[in-house]
Amino acid sequence: MRGNKELDVGDHLAQNLRQSAIEVHEGRKVEKIKGDERVEGLALDDGTELDVNGIFIEQGAKGAVGLAGGLGVMLDESMKYIAVNKKQETNLPGVYAAGDICGPPWQVAKSVCEGCVAGMEAAAYARKLKRKG
Prior knowledge:
The relative contact order is 0.08. The protein folds into two domains: 24-55, no CATH class; 59-133, FAD/NAD(P)-binding domain. The N and C termini lie far apart (56 Å). The chain has a three-stranded antiparallel beta sheet with strand order 1-2-3, with no helix packed on it. The protein is built from three helices and three strands. It is mostly helical. The protein has helices at 2-19, 64-71, 108-132, and strands at residues 30-34, 41-44, 49-51.
């Protein structure tokens, strides 16, 4: 019974997604993030080019070490999680991390709180850059 209930919720969410204005590129991989000083677009593996001004990276199958290493983000002393300060800032300006990728405790409330802080700080950072530019 529980499995069916979860399936129904997943089907409901999928239906809502299909009926929304969100464009889904299922099965595609990002080949390149475009832009010099900021994100300006994405090139997908099927040749599709998207004009975007921001991205969210989902951890997926890669661990924090693999993700951070490719971006130049510093890890914590355990070398298992991305190091952040209380504003969820990493060592890279404009790059924030939140939730499980920052380490325990593994709680939804922690992830929601950190995500909120990271989002507000990222917005403040973007406004600051806009005023400078």
